[in-house]
Every structure is written in structure tokens, then in C-alpha cells.
UniProtKB/TrEMBL annotation:
Lineage: Bacteria, Pseudomonadati, Acidobacteriota, Terriglobia, Terriglobales
Positions of region (Disordered): 712-736
Stated name of the protein: Lipoprotein
Sequence ranges of Polar residues compositional bias: 718-728
Domain of life per record: Bacteria
Organism per entry: Acidobacterium capsulatum
PROSITE patterns with a match to the protein in the record: PROKAR_LIPOPROTEIN
Length: 736
């Protein structure tokens, strides 16, 4: 997934907060202006106080509560005229300006009765700055007493500040005791650039009592915050994404920033002047070679070939445009340098392709010839060195190695580790012609994909990164898209490396393999994220009555009759982890009976199996949820059975527009069993939502649609726009 960057500033990645599409922060508003009674209607809004990272929905209603046909417009405001006052759609969705000239801006929005503009009502909205992108770094690992410099960019020009603090939680509400210290806070203000604030964080002398330290940035002391997650260790390990985003010069290492030199959007002013509006980029993933020994850089189509919009021979830059202020090589002030040329790509529009992949030829001396990737090597003086992956065609996934720790080295989040959560995944991914994702291009369905769990394993800009087995440095796939629900659940999508190499080999007419070492080596595993679905849910009181009814049912009594006496240690009301918002009948069993046959449903309610002891049940100390090892752990027979059921139902399920993907995973209600994983788009309801299919448990995970360009957490559609026109010199000529 590659990020986009606004104008020649930092990327406009606008979803730092777990908000829905429309702003819910702040109190809603009512437009009872003095002329409302004369106009015969009033305006309501979902919020009257919002940040530039949010939108609000406005409605025009008669005094009897009926919708009124109106024409919306932004009348005026006190933002700088060069930055604008934002825009409003015909449906009443207001989008704030991309930048503000002060800490608080007031904008007046008007609704005029369609056909009678003399009947109009206005409402005032208060807008304060948000963040341009996540904090840099988003994630980091520090040893005791080490330090890092963090930065935040806010959507304010010429003013503004950031209040920094430490917390034991991402919301900024936890304790700060023993978490380290903050010093040297400062902000830089510019007339035509976003305000940038920095701070130095120093790790404590001893390990904190909490799993992670959160560095919190608050815009102008408001509730608009952004967190950076920092892991503290006592074995001398330091890792941040800074090196992955830097200019490297000659013999550049893989795992760093890169992309097509033409991968930007332009904006034309009413006066006819054109400027760069935003830009994209990703990760230079790995080195591959053909049968003749010629080497190429491997990455995604949407990184190197602009989602089929590029031309063979286009220049590939290092770093990518988003790390070079969106200034391409045609501008003499650029920081970028060419490392290669687009050699081949697999068209996303072709039904015969099943991976998002491209190759670049290499300019002489531009890339490290060993295929070394940033931070894959051993620790030296507190820093992870670079190292090549294992050479060859990569590792074959099979049940015996599903539980492996996997690792990737990418532009945005650097070195991160997680586990496989689903295989044989059929998934729908949307592609666009532009960085801002305003021009739809292709909705492509991929088959046989790999899913990696964890909200911090990848993010925008990590597209193209090689995903490896952390135990031996063998490649297993290439990251290309990600999705989350803003509530801790996230999946990273990975093309299997065998498919990537095979399809590209057919495209260039020669077999390809990864360039690397013949000797396996372990890779440091830095695990930032929480596994999806592992949190203990709250049990609504109303479910307890439903579970009592299940226990009294004839079906449950028949189950007990078939069960060996003493096998069931106890029961309780629970919440299903396979389908949130549904009750579950918890069945406590001993380790000796952990594999006993248990129906997936009893009297229409899901069962949840928890292995424990009779003493724990008697003392009320039984676990609240099933214990599941990280990663995917399925037997070959269980996998084959689940795959056969998936093959029978996937096509029909994918016809439902609410469903994003279908694959094979592990049940969270009974981790010893496989489950059919169904990915549902947040805010949509599938036509059918069965708890089982052909006896196989069905697990549902709600995610926003998968992104390949914008940050996967981003929720609002951001139109391509040049918020600070005039940034470019008059002599520079942008691409049309």
C-alpha cells in the first residue's frame, strides 16, 4: 500500500483518529438563523465543531421534520483566502479546507430552497487544525536510555502548536509515570507550508510496567490527538522507520522508500496555473534475477506502474516522491535520484493476473547488488544491520509452517513482525487512477492470498515490501494492501511469492528468483500490534437469559446425554469471538477432553470452548475466553476440509456487495477448529450471515475497504486539491 502526499508538503493521510465517515465529535448544530422562519426550514448538522480531518453531514428540514430540496454553498469564512473555506457536496457533506491560517476558523454554510434562492438559511461551523499524517515515527523500538526525535505536522499555516505528553494508552488517558522524558519541544512556522513540531523522547533507565509507551501529540492543546507506539527493551535493540524513508544515494538498500517519478496528481487553478496536488510512493521490496543473471527491483504494480497508468521505461526514484516533498526529477531542487526504469508489470485490468506486481531495471550502481534489505541483519552497536533474504523461489506455505512468525521491512513502519491469520483468501481490492482515489480504475478480485494480522504490521507506504519467515529469512510473499476497522482489528494482504515470481517470469519470458544468501538466518522480530479478535468482550445482561434457555433446551440435554460424564466442567454466558454482537454458550472442558466433539451451534446459539480445570471453574477463576496461540494452527486434514467448503461457497458469498473477502482461518470460539473467514465492509450488512456452512464455523471480521494508496485507516474521501497554491515555481512545468 503506497501513501500519497499533498502538494509539496507531507502526505495528506487523514485518519489518525478512529472516527466514522462523518464527524461525531462536538455537539450537533441547528441552523435557526433569524431568517429560518421566513425561509420555512432550518439546518441540522452532525457536528458544529470539527477538525480538518473530519467531515460533517448537513440536512435541511422543514419545521414538520421533512427533508427540503436545497442548493448548498459555502458562503464565507475567516480562513486565508488562498486556502479557501472548504467545500460542500450536493448531498450536504461538508469537507473542511486542507489547511487553516489560524487555530480556529469559522465557516458559514448556506442552504437555498431549490427554485427559490431568496429562501435561504445559514449555519456556522467551527474548524480547528488536524494532523497532516501520522506521527513520525508511527512505531519505534528503543533500548533503555536511548532517544529519538519525533515530529508532527498539523494542517495550520504560519501558526499553531503541538502539546506533547506520554501515556500508557493510545488515548492519552493513562499514567505517564516511569515512561521516560520529553525535552526540546519546538515548532517551525511557514507562510506556505504546514506547521511542523518536534520533540525528543528519551527512554527510561528501567523497563516500564506497561507493554508500550505512547507518545501523544495534541493539536493546540485540543482533543485532536495522534499517538506513536514505542516499545522499550533491555537488550540493546533500537529500530525506527527513519532509515527506510531517507535518501540513500548509491548502492541503496531494499526495504526503503521508492516509486514512479510520475506518480503525482496535478491541480489547475481557475487562472489556469497547474501545481502538484499530491503524490504517491511505496517500498523497493526485493531484488530478483532472471535465468541470465540480470537483476531487477521487485515491488507492486501500483507502486512502480501507477495501477496500470504508467509507461514502460518510466523512471523509478529513491526515495519515493512522498519522501521528497513531491518534487520530481524534472525540478532541479529535487532530493530524489533515479535507481531504475519500469521494466514490466502485470496488468491489474487483466482477469488472468492474480498478483499486484512489477519489475524495474536497475541503473548502474544504484542498488546494493547483494539484495540486502534494511534491518534484516544482526544487531550491531544497538542498530539492526541490513542483510539479504534467502535466495530462491521462496518458502511454500503448508499447515506445518502456518504458525511461523513473519516479518517485513517497509518504508512507513520499518521492521515489524506478526503472524499469518488466514490463507486461501479471495479478496476484493479497489484501484484508482490517481493518488487521491477520486478516479476509480479497477475493482479486482484476487484468489489464494495470505492475510497477516495486526494493526501495526503495515501501513501506507509499505506496499511492495517482501514478507519473510522470521526464522530463516525465506520469502513468503509481497505486501500490497491493508484494511482496518479503527477498533484494533486489521489485516495486511500478501501476494504469495511463488505466484509473484511465476507470473512475472511469464511476463518477461525468463524464470525469476529472489537474490540473496544461500544460508538461512533469523531476523529480529518486533511485534507492535495486538492480534485481531483477542480482546475479552463485555457480556450484555440480556444474553444471560438466552443462554439459560439454551441450557434448558432439548438439544442441549441431548448433547449432554451423548457426552461422557464429567467432560463438561461447567457453562457460562459469553460473547462470540467469531461473530461480534452475538451471544455464545461457553463450555468449560478439561485438557483431557479438549478435542471432544462439540456442536458449533446448540439451539441456534454459537458454542465457545474454553479449556480449564474444575478447580478454576469452582473458584470462578476460569479464563474469560479461549486461549489461542498466535498465528494459524490447522492440521492438513482440517485445512483441506475447510478449503473444500470455501470452494463451494466463495463465489456466491463474493456476489454480496457487503462482503470484501472469504478465506480459511482459525475459529476464535474454538481455536482447534478451522473456520470460514468472511470479511464484511464496515457499515454494511450481508444478505445472509450464517453461523455455520456445511458444519464449518463461520467467522466474521468487519473492515473498511482495502486500500492500496491512502492510509488504510483513512475514512473520508479526500478530493485531490492544492491547498497551498503557488508553492511551485513558475518555471516548473508539471505533468498533464
Amino acid at each position: 500500500m503506497k501513501p500519497r502526499k499533498l502538494s509539496h508538503l507531507w502526505p495528506r493521510l487523514l485518519s489518525l483518529l478512529p472516527l466514522g465517515l462523518l464527524a461525531l465529535a462536538g455537539c450537533g448544530g441547528l441552523g435557526y438563523s433569524p431568517d429560518a422562519s421566513q425561509a420555512g426550514f432550518f439546518i441540522t448538522s452532525t457536528a458544529s465543531d470539527l477538525s480538518t480531518n473530519q467531515q460533517v453531514s448537513l440536512s435541511a428540514l422543514s419545521f414538520s421534520g421533512e427533508a427540503v430540496p436545497v442548493v448548498w454553498s459555502v458562503k464565507d469564512g475567516d480562513n486565508a483566502s488562498t486556502l479557501g473555506e472548504g467545500r460542500i457536496s450536493a448531498k450536504g457533506i461538508y469537507t473542511p479546507p486542507n489547511a487553516l491560517s489560524r487555530n480556529l476558523v469559522t465557516v458559514k454554510v448556506s442552504a437555498a430552497w431549490r427554485g427559490d434562492p431568496s429562501r435561504s438559511v445559514s449555519i456556522s461551523l467551527r474548524i480547528h487544525p488536524g494532523f497532516v499524517q501520522p506521527l513520525l515515527p508511527e512505531v519505534a523500538t528503543l533500548s533503555l536510555r536511548s532517544s529519538l526525535r519525533a515530529s508532527a505536522q498539523i494542517t495550520e499555516v504560519g501558526a499553531g502548536s503541538v502539546n506533547w505528553s506520554l501515556s500508557s494508552d493510545a488515548a492519552g488517558t493513562g499514567s505517564s509515570s516511569g515512561l521516560g522524558a520529553l525535552t526540546a519541544s519546538s515548532c517551525e512556522h511557514f507562510d506556505q507550508q504546514y506547521t511542523t513540531c518536534t520533540v525528543t523522547y528519551s527512554a527510561p533507565a528501567g523497563l516500564p510496567s506497561v507493554p508500550a509507551v505512547y507518545l501523544i501529540a495534541a493539536v493546540n492543546g485540543t482533543q485532536t490527538i495522534a499517538p506513536s507506539r514505542i516499545l522499550i527493551n533491555d537488550h540493546g535493540l533500537n529500530s525506527t522507520p527513519a532509515a527506510h524513508q531517507a535518501v540513500q544515494g548509491k548502492h541503496a538498500l531494499l526495504g526503503g522508500s521508492g516509486g514512479n517519478d510520475n506518480d503525482y496528481d496535478t491541480y489547475t487553478t481557475p487562472a489556469g496555473k497547474s501545481y502538484i496536488a499530491d503524490c504517491c510512493g511505496g517500498t523497493l521490496g526485493a531484488l530478483v534475477k532472471d535465468a541470465a543473471g540480470q537483476k531487477f527491483i521487485l515491488s507492486n504494480n501500483h507502486v512502480f506502474a501507477e495501477s496500470d497508468q504508467a509507461k514502460i521505461g518510466d523512471v523509478i526514484d529513491q526515495p519515493g516522491l512522498m519522501d521528497g516533498a513531491c518534487i520530481p526529477l524534472s525540478d532541479a531542487s529535487t532530493r530524489l535520484h533515479a535507481v531504475g526504469r519500469l521494466r514490466a508489470y502485470l496488468p491489474l485490468s487483466a482477469r488472468s493476473t492474480n498478483v499486484d506486481a512489477a519489475l524495474a531495471s536497475i541503473d548502474p550502481g544504484a542498488i546494493n547488488s547483494s539484495g540486502a534489505i534494511l534491518e534484516l541483519g544482526p544487531l550491531h552497536d544497538g542498530i539492526l544491520t541490513s542483510a539479504p533474504p534467502m535466495a530462491g523461489e521462496g518458502e511454500t506455505l503448508e499447515p506445518d509452517n502456518f504458525g511461523m512468525p513473519v516479518v517485513k521491512s517497509g518504508r512507513t513502519t520499518g521492521l515489524t513482525c506478526s503472524h499469518i491469520s488466514a490463507v486461501d483468501l479471495t479478496v476484493k481490492v479497489n484501484y484508482y487512477k490517481d493518488c487521491a482515489e477520486t478516479q476509480p480504475y479497477e475493482s479486482k478480485i484476487f484468489h489464494g492470498q495470505i492475510a497477516i494480522e495486526g494493526a501495526d504490521f503495515t501501513d501506507s507506504g509499505d506496499s511492495g515490501a517482501l514478507v519473510l519467515d522470521a526464522r530463516n529469512a525465506e520469502g513468503i510473499g509481497m505486501y500490497f494492501a491493508g484494511g482496518t476497522n479503527g477498533d484494533g482489528d486489521a489485516l495486511s494482504l500478501v501476494n504469495p511469492i511463488h505466484d509473484v515470481l511465476s507470473e512475472l517470469s511469464g511476463e518477461i519470458g525468463s524464470p525469476l528468483q529472489l537474490v540473496g544468501t544461500a544460508k538461512p538466518h533469523p531476523i529480529a522480530c518486533i511485534h507492535y500490534g495486538q492480534a485481531a479478535g483477542r480482546r475479552t468482550p463485555v457480556i450484555p445482561e440480556i444474553w444471560r437469559g438466552r443462554i439459560q434457555a439454551v441450557l434448558a433446551s432439548a438439544e442441549y440435554q441431548e448433547f449432554l446425554h451423548r457426552t461422557r460424564p464429567g467432560a463438561i466442567l461447567g457453562t457460562a454466558a459469553g460473547a462470540s469471538l467469531d461473530e461480534r454482537g452475538r451471544p455464545a454458550l461457553i463450555l468449560y472442558v478439561s485438557a483431557a477432553h479438549s478435542n471432544m466433539p462439540i456442536p458449533s451451534l446448540i439451539d441456534g446459539v454459537r458454542t465457545q470452548v474454553i479449556v480449564t480445570t474444575s478447580a478454576a471453574v469452582a473458584q470462578g477463576k476460569a479464563p474469560g475466553a479461549p486461549a489461542a496461540p498466535e498465528g494459524l494452527h490447522l492440521s492438513a486434514s482440517s485445512l483441506a476440509h475447510a478449503e473444500s467448503i470455501a470452494q463451494q461457497h466463495t463465489r456466491q458469498l463474493m456476489r454480496d456487495p457487503a462482503i470484501l473477502g472469504v478465506g480459511v482461518a482459525q475459529s476464535l470460539d474454538r481455536p482447534s477448529e478451522a473456520a470460514l473467514l468472511v470479511l464484511v465492509e464496515v457499515g454494511r450488512i450481508p444478505r445472509h450471515q450464517p453461523a455455520t456452512l456445511d458444519g464449518l464455523r463461520v467467522r466474521y471480521l468487519h473492515l473498511r475497504r482495502f486500500h492500496v494508496t491512502r492510509e488504510r485507516h483513512e475514512q473520508r474521501p479526500i478530493p485531490s486539491s492544492c491547498s497551498l497554491s503557488g508553492m511551485r515555481s513558475e518555471t516548473w512545468k508539471p505533468r498533464n
